[in-house]
């Protein structure tokens, strides 16, 4: 019988990840962290435009995205991707990896549809936890008004505190 850790390790080896960051050093660091957790199929884009083109061409299993980069920036990028009527892969999981940890930025990232948020500098352990969460136990994608993205956590984890009577 295969262990859960072995199944996760197999998923990580098979994962195709796209890193989008305008800083070469940060792309190198992120690539190294991904390799440390077992991800070997890693691609890079230097800005939002080449990142959008790369998603179309590569069809990655996961995108790791910076906030501050040339047009489109991180939030604009996510809005473009999370457009199911005009973008071919609106459901691709996106982890925002940024040096901006202000609550307002975290809230904006959630509102535009990122799957998860990590603050730089990031540890291997934190990156592994987010990647596993997004890939192994993804939240379902949904549309609520103008929002298209992962089901908000408060809905995903909501359990009523009463039993519904069956008639």
CATH class: Alpha Beta
Output the strand order for the largest sheet.
2-1-3-4-5
Q: Classify the helix fraction into a percent range.
A: 40-55%
What gyration radius follows from the Cα positions, in whole Å? Answer: 17 Å
Describe this protein's structure.
The chain is an alpha/beta fold. The chain has one domain (4-156): Rossmann fold. Helices cover 42% and strands 19% of the residues. The protein is built from seven helices and seven strands; from the N terminus they run αβαβαβαβαβαββα. The chain has helices at 4-14, 24-36, 48-58, 74-81, 103-112, 124-136, 153-156, and strands at residues 16-20, 41-45, 62-65, 94-98, 116-119, 141-144, 147-150. Strand 3 (62-65), helix 4 and strand 4 (94-98) form a beta-alpha-beta unit. The N and C termini lie far apart (43 Å). Mean pLDDT is 90; it is low at 158-167.
Gist of the model:
Helices cover about 40% and strands about 20% of the residues. The protein is of the alpha/beta class and about 170 residues long.
List its salient traits.
167 residues; alpha/beta; Rossmann fold; five-stranded parallel sheet; two-stranded antiparallel ribbon; 7 helices; 7 strands; globular; disordered C terminus
Compile the SSE list and pairings.
Blueprint: H1 4-14, E1 16-20, H2 24-36, E2 41-45, H3 48-58, E3 62-65, H4 74-81, E4 94-98, H5 103-112, E5 116-119, H6 124-136, E6 141-144, E7 147-150, H7 153-156
Parallel strand pairs: 1-2, 1-3, 3-4, 4-5
Antiparallel strand pairs: 6-7
Helix pairs in contact: 3-4
């Amino acid at each position: 019988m295969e262990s859960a850790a072995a199944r996760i390790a197999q998923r990580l080896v098979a994962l195709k990840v796209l890193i989008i960051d305008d800083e070469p050093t940060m792309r190198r660091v992120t690539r190294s962290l991904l390799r440390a957790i077992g991800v070997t199929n890693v691609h890079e884009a230097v800005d939002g435009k080449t990142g959008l083109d790369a998603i179309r061409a590569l069809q990655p299993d996961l995108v790791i995205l910076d906030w501050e980069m040339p047009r489109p920036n991180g939030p604009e990028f996510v809005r473009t991707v999370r457009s199911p009527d005009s973008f071919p892969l609106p459901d691709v999981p996106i982890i925002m990896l940024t040096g901006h940890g202000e609550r307002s930025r975290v809230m904006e990232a959630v509102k535009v549809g990122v799957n998860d948020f990590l603050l730089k500098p990031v540890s291997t352990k934190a990156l592994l936890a987010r990647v596993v969460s997004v890939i192994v136990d993804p939240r379902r994608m949904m549309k609520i008004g103008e929002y298209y993205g992962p089901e908000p956590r408060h809905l995903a984890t909501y359990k009523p505190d009463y039993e519904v009577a069956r008639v």
